[in-house]
Amino acid sequence: SALNFFRILYIYTRLVRGCVFTVVSAFMSSNSLQELLAEVKAYPDGTDLLITALYTAVDHFRRGSICTPFPSEVFPPVTTTGNKDFPAVKRALDALPPVHVLLSDEALAKLPPQALDLLKWLLLNPARQRRFARMSLEDLIRQLRERGGDLAWLHQALSGQKAPSYILQAQTTNAQASFTRSAIAYHGTRMENLHSIIHTGLRSMSGTRLQRNGANFGSGIYLSTRYDTALSFCEPYATWHRSRFGTKQRALLVCEVDMEKCKHVEEAGSGDAQIPETYLLVSSSDGVRLLYVLLYCDARHPPRSLRINPCTVIIVLYIVFLLGKALIEMLKRPRYY
Predict the structure, then answer these.
(1) What region holds the PARP16 N-terminal domain (predicted)?
(2) What do you get for the CA distance between the two ends of the chain, in Å?
(3) Please, are residues 89 and 75 in contact by the beta-carbon 8 Å criterion?
(4) Please, which residues bridge with residue 249 across strands?
């Protein structure tokens, strides 16, 4: 009898513990969804940028080396090979709807578990949280003027195809000490590198297998004080197909540079090559801070109007006439039964 009593007590305790765990998990899940929803609503364009950057890195043929950080907490390595599970990440990203659809509890709750966990990893990780808010060109001009940036390039940007389609400002959650002597500079990059740059900062890839351009003036992070020079290093690349910014984008980074950590190179390499005045070569990543991301989206060409060539019309009418005449002649022939 006593043994049965303890068995019943044990089972009852397990049931109570299970119910408490279920209630706590549901409460935490609800709080997490609310936190995620608040983040998406506060930074819809930033959310789109983060998803697009990750998608482009995962979809690129160099993903093994450029997709850093990787969401290994959500997608553990493949059991058989130990490699990163890029296909699973790609499937989760493909399951995400456009950002404007995610602005409700119902839409977030309907996401597949891995897609939801990936979104939380991307937006809510306090150690790696990156936020971007969309801003106007007028606000960019005002803020750069306050920082003492060279605004001559804005006349070119406003007058032609060099104008950015979208401008997103990087918002830091932690206060950073200002540089003693700083300058505004620009860095053109490929879209597939944007995910790593956003989360880990600009880094020197000179002399590594990730180097994509020459290092004629030594190793370091290359930037330019000329907008058009940096823009020439941007190349359009196909991105997330549900992005509000378009499916083919280029990215130009506006940065603040610590002039105390710039290399002053008089000569480098062979010959008399000197670093140009418009180039800045920064020795370490902590000497560069990302301020703004300028996105350039290939404009969708308007549908071509239907243009009728008179010669084409005459030829078509003549062919129709010949076919009609041949049909009439065939019908006129006597038939023998």
Answers:
(1) 44-123
(2) 108
(3) yes
(4) 237, 297
